[in-house]
Amino acid sequence: MKLNYQNMLNTPKTGIQITENEMKMQFAKVQNIIEALNHGEGDNQDKGVPMLGWQTYARDITPAEIQKIQDAARNLADKCDVVFIIGIGGSYLGPKAVIEAVYGKNYNDVLKTKLYFIGCDTDPDFYAHCLKIGEDKNCGVVVISKSGTTTEPALAFRFIKRLIEQRQGKNAKDFIIAVTDAKKGALRQLADGEGYATFVIPDNIGGRFSVVTPVGLAPIAIAGIDIAEYLSGYKKALPLIDNPDAEKNPAALYALLRFLAWQKGAAAEYQVTNSAFFESNLAWTMQLEPESEGHYGHGLHVVPAVFPRDLHSIGQLIQQGPRDLIEIATKILTPRADLPVPLYADDTDELNYIPQNKLTLNDINKMTIDGPLAAHYADGVPNMTIELEKITPQNLGEYHYLLMKATAIQGYLLGHNPFVQPGVQFWKDKLFKLAGKPGY
Ligand SMILES: O=P(O)(O)OC[C@H]1O[C@](O)(CO)[C@@H](O)[C@@H]1O
């Protein structure tokens, strides 16, 4: 994993301008922030609990706990044709990002036990579709909710629970895994009452930082992905990402450059990639960063984009629209399989220059990041690139820790606690009121 940030500096023309000197002037401050995070200091509490457990979870989880998750996952996958993963926000984006990065968006084409994410919307058509899929099949569910009272996943669980009960009768509980709080909350109460297998979301880890916990681990294990490998990548990143020397720490540089760009008027950040498999990781980032930094008028809008696809829709705006944006690209260097481009004698489409220049499809795919980023920079869009050698569970673990630490650093640079989300509660309350929930 490598961060290349030269294109964030000295942007030509009219774009956001950041100099190396401005960056260096902040290094001491960033160093203090990293030390504070490493030592559990600073404004980091949610309802009285310091929310920094994601920094140590991968290091502290025991082999026995990993095995327990793996065994429960295998057991459920083996006896089910379909497993529904229920969760919303941080309770589904992380596992979806890992599963899609490993198998692609059409993961069900390669998985024996089909996985469906439900509970992050309330569309009756989608529910009907899922219930139809589950009809006459052995279905299981992993229901993920720290609070247990989030409307969308709680609703979904009612429907899926009923579906499972109709087929399995009193054995239904053996097809249900709940991932929730250790002691509190409606789902914990239900799970204990009904005897579901459970895994704990630690008190000191919030939803958007929870991919490293059973929130992420249980579903990705059901998909057959090696969770020990994911955790080993996350752990491997700790010394690099916890390093207080800002200049040597990619998370520090990432956060600092985003912060400086925001200070200088950036309103939006395009999170881009050249990998169709990686797209859901951008969706994960789209919660992680805005939910952490969108306080007191702070923060950047995060716009996900897959290149080259989305260049053919939003490319004009990026190139010549308002100069209030930056781009952060995640470039995958080596695909699982590279393909030579077929040569045709007639060359009607004028593509023979590609194989004649000894370029493969992957060479072109890398250029669909490099070329457009250079063009955007020339027109005033600062950008930086995270290079991932390959998509592997290990590299995904590293990448997630980089982004989470950067998000925490960014919150402290902005001067607020990045681990709370009072604004989310505000609209949730409005919805409760509309629906006539008692007490609202
Ligand atoms: O796990 P819970 O309690 O259902 O919360 C789900 C999600 O809702 C949010 O509060 C808002 O999206 C997220 O922070 C969280 O990840």
Automatic annotation (TrEMBL):
What is the native source organism of this protein? Answer: Termititenax aidoneus
For this entry, list what GO says about its biological process.
Answer: gluconeogenesis; glucose 6-phosphate metabolic process; glycolytic process
Q: Its Gene Ontology molecular function terms?
A: carbohydrate derivative binding; glucose-6-phosphate isomerase activity; monosaccharide binding
Q: Which gene encodes it?
A: pgiB
Q: Which domain of life is it from?
A: Bacteria
Gene3D superfamilies assigned: Glucose-6-phosphate isomerase like protein, domain 1
User: Keywords of this protein's UniProt record, alphabetized?
Assistant: Cytoplasm, Gluconeogenesis, Glycolysis, Isomerase
Report the sequence similarity comment from the record: Belongs to the GPI family.
Checking Pfam families in the record gives:
PGI (PF00342)
* Catalytic function, reaction form: alpha-D-glucose 6-phosphate = beta-D-fructose 6-phosphate
Metabolic or biological pathway: Carbohydrate degradation; glycolysis; D-glyceraldehyde 3-phosphate and glycerone phosphate from D-glucose: step 2/4
Q: Which InterPro entries match?
A: G6P_Isomerase, Phosphoglucose_isomerase_CS, SIS_dom_sf, SIS_PGI_1, SIS_PGI_2
Write out the GO cellular component annotations: cytosol
Q: Which residues form a coiled coil?
A: none
Which EC numbers does the record give?
A: 5.3.1.9
In Swiss-Prot or TrEMBL terms, this protein is called Glucose-6-phosphate isomerase
Q: What taxonomic lineage is listed for the species of origin?
A: Bacteria, Bacillati, Candidatus Margulisiibacteriota, Candidatus Termititenacia, Candidatus Termititenacales
